[in-house]
Amino acid sequence: MASPLPAPPPPPGSLAIQPLFPVALGQVQLRPDPLDLAVQIQALHAFRGPAQSNPDPGCAWTGDLNGVWQLHRHPTFAPLAAEVAAQARAYLAQLGFTPGVCALHLQRCWPVLSEPGQVVGRHHHPNAHLSAVYYLTGDGTGRCGVLRFWPQRQLNELVPGMAVGHQAPLAAVPGSGAGWLAGSADVAPRAGLLVLFPAALEHAVLPNDDPDALRCSISFDFVLTAPPLPDGQTPPEYLAPHPSQWTAITEDGEPQA
Prior knowledge:
alpha+beta, 10 strands, 13% helix
């Protein structure tokens, strides 16, 4: 894919800063049917059962650690999964992926239920390439716990550690360039909001500070591979072959029939 055209030169004597290499954070506000939303939330309560955490009381209950990791196969959530997959393809198209070059796979899908005071710790998804989260609850204020992202590297810091610690010279003062040195970025949950982001991007869920609200979301992990190819054609080396062309090996080291 060709690089974007460079920014025009600034007027003589002035300094202009151009943003380079941004992280692609996708957001789309879906319009769920209120009845479908109620049925989905009821189903998530049934999946969780009597459990309240994961298992530490301060950690939200997540389906992927409790056997609920293929929610997209459940009839109640299959239409939502199809809509999310369509938005994932739109995300790839906006990034410049050529249609047909990559096969998109929905690898896993699980619910996250956060009671007041609960969090999801900082992590990323090394098993996937593209991740997404869909909110069933939230009013956009962030009271029930924002989704926080961290940059993998803070290149604009120039000297590692300059923006943190005692007497740090890089203060987050309005007009000081703090936007170029932001240590994190937050997204507030809102019912129907879908967020897509690179799976390698570190993220967490901050505490649910709404004493009367249960924070409900569904997470998705996607993987990109080469499409299935006819015999004699080789997939590009930067993409795994399509899973239909893999061969499983048994514990005895033999190809599985």
